[in-house]
Amino acid sequence: MRKRIQDQAEKPDGENGDRQFVTALQRGLDILRAFTPDDRMGLGNRELAARTGLPNSTVSRLTYTLLKLGFLTYDDATGRYRMGVPVLGLGYACLGGIKVREAAQPLMQQLADECGDGVLVGLGGRDDLTMTYIAAARAARGMISLQLNVGSRISLGRSAMGRAYLAVAAPEERAELMTRLAERVGPDRWPRLRAEIDEAAEQIRTRGFYCNTGQWQSDINSVSVPFPSPQGDVPPLAFNLGGPAYVLSPERLENELGPKLLHLVNTVKHIRE
């Protein structure tokens, strides 16, 4: 991915045949996307350059501009940048426009409470080659569940949520994403990953949900159901239920929780209609 970003960054606007595309804007957004919830100490220019694949001089100009606009703040003591308040405003504006969250949240909470200890129920959408949580629910009481919250990002290619998204993505989008995933993981790992993604699509086609047992993280099992847009005018989302493997056995996922998550999704579809 870094090479792809760098290749694009070195080309002038329109060289890829799309003269409406503003590469400078893409670069600025790449800087903002480089931050994660775990970066509590902030990021310096060198770290941002490493994460984005952009030249150091380009990163310096972009962070200066974003700082002037308030989208980044700067700590003189550490020489690091953090996200500014205006970014939060954009995030809430985005969440406010995803109406399915309002219908889904109480149902997600009800399911999380039914499942009990260690289970997280989430809803996410695609952000480049990751899935970003836009809603999350966990049991009010019980052991600590997965430390994922709104804004957390997980793998598109390896997670149950990401594979559910790929199963219902538009053919052109799916083909592009599969090509990019192949480039990222390399020829040695790609055949196995492609087979697992194809298996996820087949499970969703035949029974409506997909069970991921240890393929995202070895000690985590999960089940996911895609949520295509009823009108097909926006990208799909995906619901996910996951937790420690010793809590969520493959049998429990397949026989109990997969059908329950599928029922939740169908209920949300009915409410939205």
Can you describe this structure?
This protein is α+β, with helices and mostly antiparallel strands. It is built from ten helices and eight strands. The protein has a six-stranded antiparallel β-sheet. A two-stranded antiparallel ribbon has the order 1-2. The chain is globular.
Helix content: 40-55%
Low-confidence stretches: 1-15
- The number of distinct helices, counting runs of at least 4 residues, comes to 10
Give the overall shape, derived from the CA principal axes. Answer: globular
Kindly estimate the percentage of residues that lie in beta strands according to DSSP. 15-25%
For the secondary structure, the number of strands is: 8
Structural class: alpha+beta
SSE pattern: HHHHEEHHEEEHHHEEEH
What is the makeup of the main sheet?
6 strands, antiparallel
Query: What is the CA-atom radius of gyration, in angstroms?
Result: 20 Å
User: Can you list the strand order of the major beta sheet?
Assistant: 5-4-3-8-7-6
Distance between the termini: 38 Å
Features:
disordered N terminus, 273 residues, globular, alpha+beta, six-stranded antiparallel beta sheet
How do you describe this structure in short?
By secondary structure, the protein is an alpha+beta fold. Helix content is 49%, strand content 18%. The strands form two sheets. The chain has a six-stranded antiparallel sheet with strand order 5-4-3-8-7-6. A two-stranded antiparallel sheet has the order 1-2.
